[in-house]
Amino acid sequence: xxxxxxxxxxLDVKNGETVKGTNFINLRSAGDPVELAKKYSEVxxxxxVFLDITASFEGRKTFRDMVTRVAQEINxxxxxxGGINEMSDVEQLLYAGADKVSINSAAIKRPxxxxxxxxxxGSQVCVVAIDARLSDGRWNCYLKGGRxxxxxxxxxxxxxxxxxxxxxxLFTSMNHDxxxxxxxxxxxxxxxxxxxxxxxxxxxxxxxxxxxxxFQTGHADAALAASVFHFGEIPIPDLKRYLTDNGINVRL
Length: 252
Hints:
The protein has helices at about 35-45, 55-75, 85-95, 105-110, 110-120, 155-165, 185-195, 210-215, 225-230, 235-245; strands at about 5-15, 15-20, 25-30, 50, 80, 100-105, 125-135, 140-145, 150-155, 170-175, 200, 220-225. By secondary structure, it is an alpha/beta fold.
């Protein structure tokens, strides 16, 4: 059956609390990140992703303290990202207890950072996150939490990230983020078929069927979601039973 598919709740953290928006805007509170992390660990999430979405200097210290608290409370792997620009940021977060780091803007600006992280800590530690928007038939990558468009093509950049040693690609479709209309399965399938490293799908989960589609049609290795988990719309145990009943290999 191959490797089990992973279900990954994502917690966007701002000023010490979890928030969630639509198309990267209109944020609302979703609760305490440490308590949410503990709950997800208990109900069967495979991994967690925490993103420091403001990543100011003060926010960075608050976030690092939160990472330490999370590491003390859960027994599943977790990835942290947001505002990581240099090796010292990576080191601080890993030493605080994170299992992996996610880099986005910094990797596009200085691709050698991927090489540095993987040489020092191994490919398994480095997740390259890509926020991209489909416009006029082309997927352009964006910086700064979706605020700044680049000329980087999603597929070319993902291939370069893999070549530089990235262990996983976390692809968020900005067109689908928060819409609950399903994942960008066509783009995901192309990424999965092109690359040899795991692809984490993000953006668009609204119902159980979307998770089934992202694994069957999008060929994703993991599915990340936020609001449907945070606000109790799709309980993870129910989702995993549904996926198992439909032939998807997940850890129960």
